[in-house]
Every structure is written in structure tokens, then in C-alpha cells.
Specification:
The chain is an alpha/beta fold. The protein has a single domain, classed as Rossmann fold (3-Layer(aba) Sandwich). Helices cover 38% and strands 18% of the residues. The relative contact order is 0.17. Bound molecules: NADPH dihydro-nicotinamide-adenine-dinucleotide phosphate (NDP) and dtdp-4-keto-L-rhamnose (TDO). Its EC number is 1.1.1.133.
Length: 257
């Protein structure tokens, strides 16, 4: 039986993992929310790692508010960089394979083609910078790690672009959405399955991986798709708002391959 710790377990991806966990009878999960385990608390992390002797840690804990990270970057760096460093240090000490999730926002979006794992990151916002530093710490400290970069995660759970658009549309609000950014929406349920399959299939947990649902589009296209799939396209007016006001800059094109 492999013992698997999931941090940030009450977030979107964490809850998707919790949903499918019963299908994986050979994995013994411990799901820890931010209240159960704060990854920035090194004493608590070490105590748990020493006690439980995990085989794997899937790190779903992160600070994901891209707009707020611009205003209070120190909070983003504390979780996405220093918290990740703590997990890497104790994963190494207790021989745990670390599966960490990162983002398309580590890239600047200037490349005209999809980004591969060989492309050099150059984040343009604080969230992306904090996530990149987390990646760097893992690479410096560990050998048994997988950094899985994904993009535009959505699901029926929590606050994400999909649930925001659906909520606005159901409330009868007209929508103004930017077509100035292109990326690959990725269903968090698919990512959850991909991660657990890496473990049960005994895949080599080493290096950087890119995982998306494979179809690129703009946020505007994605909003249209959401309306169409939920049969709301006739009730709600959707307009292209390329100058949608944001605090944080986002990559123009961050397709991952
Ligand atoms: N959402 C997206 O579009 C994308 C996400 N990613 C990455 O995927 C991963 C999962 O994202 P997602 O599930 O969507 O994010 P969520 O924001 O839904 O979940 C993150 C979870 O981390 C928890 N958390 C925050 N700080 C700490 C801490 N110090 N210790 C422990 N837990 C903490 C949060 O708890 P609380 O709510 O209590 O603060 C929350 O439950 C993240 O690494 C993210 O960077 C990558 C690409 C796209
Ligand atoms: C809700 C909304 C957003 N937008 C714009 C704002 C922004 O440029 C873009 C996306 O909006 P959001 O703020 O929901 O998405 P954002 O927080 O930028 O999403 C990112 O989250 C982090 C965690 C990641 O790692 C990324 O992969 C990506 O998914 O769409 C509109 O134009 N109209 C709208 O009604």
C-alpha cells in the first residue's frame, strides 16, 4: 500500500482528488486542508512527515489569487515559494516523492508557438514569479520530483473562470470577456486522474511535465463554450472586451505542449 499525502486538499484540485480517491484501492490517502497542515509551518510539516512515512506527497496547496498576488506578493511567495521549499526539504529527508503542480503563468506569453518543457520561463506577474521560485527550490533540493505545469484549471468546484461565468450568466448578467489571451482550459478532474495514474502505473517521478486538455482558445472562446454547453447562449449577451480591466498582467499566449 502506497501512502499518499495530499496538501491543500480542500481546494479545487484537492477536492477532485478526494472524489476519485475511492477508486484507487491500493493508495492510502491522507488529505490535509490548509487548517490541518499549513505548508509554511516547517515544524508541523516535519512532524507529519516523520510520523506518517509517506511514499508520495501531492502538493495542491497554493496561493492562486492572481489579482491579489500583485498587491500582496509576500503572501504569494510565502506559500508558493517558501512553503514549497519546506515540502521539498522534508520530502527529501523522509524519502517522499513530491508531485507538485505549477502553471502556464511561469511563461511570458510572447512565444508564438506552444511552450514545451525546454522553454525558459519568464513570468510577468507576481503569482507566476512565486510559482517559478517554488519550481526552482524543488529542482535545487530534490531528485524524486514531478513538477506538473497545467493551465486554466476549471471544474464545478470552487471559484474558477467556469464557475464565475456560469454564476454571472445564471444571474442574468451580460458578459464582457477578453479575447486577448490564449491558453488551454483544463478540467481539474482530468488532472486529478492523470496524477493518480502516474503513481499507480509506477511512472518515473522525475522532472517537469506539461498537462492540459490539449485544446487552445481565448477566454472569450471559453466563455462562449461554457454558455453553449449549459444552454445559456440565447439568454445571455456575451461581448468581446479586449481591454477588460485587470491589475495583474497575464501572458498573451500560454499554450502548453
Ligand atoms: N486554478 C488554476 O487555474 C490553476 C492552478 N494551478 C495550480 O494548481 C494547483 C491547485 O490549484 P487549485 O486547486 O485550482 O487552487 P485552489 O486555490 O482551489 O486551492 C489551493 C488550496 O491551497 C490551500 N492553501 C493556501 N495556502 C496554504 C498553506 N499555507 N498551507 C496549506 N494549504 C494552503 C488553500 O486553502 P485556503 O482556501 O484555506 O487558503 C486552498 O484550499 C496550485 O498549485 C495552482 O497554482 C495551475 C494552473 C492553473
Ligand atoms: C470573470 C472574467 C474574467 N475576464 C478575464 C480576466 C482575465 O484576463 C481572464 C481570466 O480570468 P480569471 O481572473 O478568472 O483567471 P486567472 O486568475 O487569470 O486564471 C489563472 O489562474 C491561475 C491560478 C493559473 O495558474 C492560470 O493557469 C489561470 O487559470 O479573463 C473577463 O474578461 N471577463 C470576466 O467576466
Amino acid at each position: 500500500m502506497k501512502k499518499v499525502l495530499v496538501t491543500g486538499a480542500n481546494g479545487q484540485l484537492g477536492q477532485c482528488l478526494q472524489k476519485i480517491a475511492p477508486l484507487y484501492k491500493d493508495l492510502d490517502f491522507l488529505f490535509q486542508s490548509s487548517k490541518d497542515l499549513d505548508i509554511t509551518n516547517d515544524v508541523a510539516v516535519e512532524l507529519l512527515f516523520e510520523k506518517e512515512q509517506f511514499n508520495y506527497c501531492i502538493n495542491c496547496a497554493a496561493y492562486t489569487n492572481v489579482e491579489q498576488a500583485e498587491k500582496t506578493p509576500e503572501i504569494a511567495f510565502k506559500v508558493n515559494a517558501e512553503g514549497v521549499r519546506t515540502l521539498a526539504l522534508f520530502s527529501k529527508k523522509y524519502n517522499v516523492s513530491l508531485i507538485h503542480i505549477s502553471t502556464d503563468y511561469v511563461f511570458d506569453g510572447e512565444k508564438k508557438e506552444p511552450y514545451t518543457i525546454d522553454d525558459i520561463p519568464n513570468p510577468i506577474n507576481e503569482y507566476g514569479k512565486s510559482k517559478l521560485l517554488g519550481e526552482k527550490y524543488i529542482q535545487e533540493i530534490m531528485e524524486n520530483y514531478a513538477i506538473i505545469r497545467t493551465s486554466w484549471l476549471y471544474s464545478e468546484i470552487g471559484k474558477n473562470f467556469y464557475t464565475t461565468i456560469l454564476k454571472k450568466a445564471k444571474a442574468g448578467e451580460n458578459l464582457a470577456v477578453t479575447s486577448n489571451q490564449t491558453g488551454c482550459p483544463t478540467n481539474a478532474n482530468n488532472l486529478a486522474r492523470y496524477i493518480l495514474e502516474l503513481i499507480v502505473q509506477n511512472k518515473k517521478i522525475v522532472g517537469i511535465f506539461h498537462f492540459t486538455d490539449g485544446k487552445s482558445m481565448t477566454w472569450y472562446d471559453f466563455a462562449s463554450k461554457i454558455l453553449l454547453e449549459n444552454n445559456l447562449q440565447k439568454q445571455v449577451k456575451l461581448v468581446d472586451r479586449s481591454n477588460y480591466l485587470n491589475f495583474a498582467q497575464r501572458p498573451t499566449c500560454s499554450i502548453l505542449k
